[in-house]
Write a structure and sequence with these properties.
Helix content: over 70%
Order of helices and strands: HH
Keywords: Coiled coil
Shape: rod-shaped
Number of helices: 2
Number of domains: 2
Distance between the termini: 116 Å
Radius of gyration: 42 Å
Largest sheet: none
Structural class: mainly alpha
Length: 115
């Protein structure tokens, strides 16, 4: 018969081996999860930086468009101030009525052209 202390030693070594393996496996899984998480964070940061860069570009483009619109409005106002004849209608009253009728889809006789 085997002495009891040998059985205790073998069981102790078995338990120690099992718990060490369990611990190592846990650390391995945690390291893999950490690596995946770090990759996800890096990808998110890259995407965020690209979005920020695009937003800055769009803001610059918008500022340019606003300045262009302001310049066009200023030039239009200056042209109207220099040439006030552009703001008055040169057509006689009857012609204006004909244009309004045409826009509304009516013929000269007052009937709708589309019906």
């Amino acid at each position: 018969m085997t002495p009891w202390w040998k059985i205790v030693i073998v069981l102790g070594w078995t338990l120690a081996s099992f718990t060490t393996g369990w611990h190592v496996k846990g650390k391995y899984v945690q390291a893999a999860q950490l690596e995946d998480y770090q990759k996800q964070v890096a990808a998110a940061q890259t995407a965020q930086q690209e979005a920020n860069d695009r937003a800055v570009d769009l803001e610059k483009q918008l500022a340019t468009e606003r300045q262009l619109a302001h310049d066009i409005n200023s030039k239009t106002e200056q042209t109207i101030e220099k040439h006030p004849e552009f703001t008055s209608c040169k057509l006689p009253d009857g012609s204006v009525q004909l244009l309004n009728d045409a826009i509304a889809g009516r013929t000269a006789s007052g009937f709708n052209a589309g019906m």
